[in-house]
Amino acid sequence: MVADLSLSSWGRKEMLIAEIEMPGLMAIREEFSGSKPLKGARIAGSLHMTIQTAVLIETLTALGAEVRWASCNIYSTQDHAAAAIAESGVPVFAFKGETLEQYWDYCHKIFEWPSDQANMILDDGGDATLLLHLGTKAESDLSVLNKPSSEEERVLYAAIKKKLATDPKWYSVRLAAVKGVTEETTTGVKRLIEMAADKSLAFPAINVNDSVTKSKFDNLYGCRESLVDAIKRATDVMIAGKVAVVAGFGDVGKGSAQALRALSAQVWVTEVDPICALQAAMEGFRVVTMEYAAD
């Protein structure tokens, strides 16, 4: 399920460029594609469907894995990347501008394998992991779906109820087949820590987010470039002279604040951690409360 399969040639061209910028993955592909160490792995992927993700997917399949993929965000899909992967034969369910209903439907589809179930999850934000765990709880106690606290929860709960109406054991069957999950981002890691603490996590998890090559490079340098690029693409406004508020001064906040200052914005930082707040002040940023910034 992609927006336009005819975009695949454009996606393939950008993937070839991205491969040059991703030497780590390409070295792994060259070294291990012959031995297929991931043979037997059936990976349900929930990660931004971008050109870089497309290179990751093709690396996983080159190493022997079978893959089904959905985006972890309704707006982040690059349609030409999704088209290129779909044309290669990998089931992908993603297009830019999905509704919440479509998003959770596609999250279900990455677990609907033709024969054996998925035995691994590659997650970003924890939605795929949440889906199986919450759905399994609902199989025995439907009341856990009674009080959604947001529009997204309302849509998610409705999707789970709809699936249970057709297959009362859909979630537990798939949960039991999963051997482990890798989690890419802070939100998902926090969810996993909470689940591990209350002993509800059904399988082992690898915290990719806190690996030094992710948190100290992607979070800092990657966001430093992608933030202003995304703002300009979405709004087409000049940043110079604007007051920009950065919520938090962790690695992502540090890179974001640097990028905004480089374009001559007046950068304010909000931060609850006193050490990070002091770092922001020492870097020359104005540290304020969120209430002050929003007033």
Topology summary:
Blueprint: H1 8-20, H2 23-32, E1 42-46, H3 51-62, E2 66-70, H4 79-87, E3 92-93, H5 100-109, E4 120-123, H6 127-140, H7 151-166, H8 170-177, E5 180-183, H9 186-197, E6 205-207, H10 212-235, E7 243-247, H11 251-262, E8 266-270, H12 274-282, E9 286-287, H13 290-294
Parallel strand pairs: 1-2, 1-4, 2-3, 4-5, 5-6, 7-8, 8-9
Helix pairs in contact: 1-3, 1-4, 2-3, 3-4, 5-7, 6-7, 6-8, 10-11
Give an overview in words.
The protein is α/β, with parallel strands linked by helices and 295 residues long. The protein has two domains: 206 residues, Adenosylhomocysteinase-like (Rossmann fold); 74 residues, 3-Layer(aba) Sandwich (Rossmann fold). The chain is built from 13 helices and nine strands. Helix 12 links the parallel strand 8 and strand 9. Helix 1 packs across helix 3, helix 5 packs across helix 7 and helix 10 packs across helix 11.
From the structure above, extract its key features.
Rossmann fold; three-stranded parallel β-sheet; single chain; 13 helices; 2 domains; 52% helix; alpha/beta; 295 residues
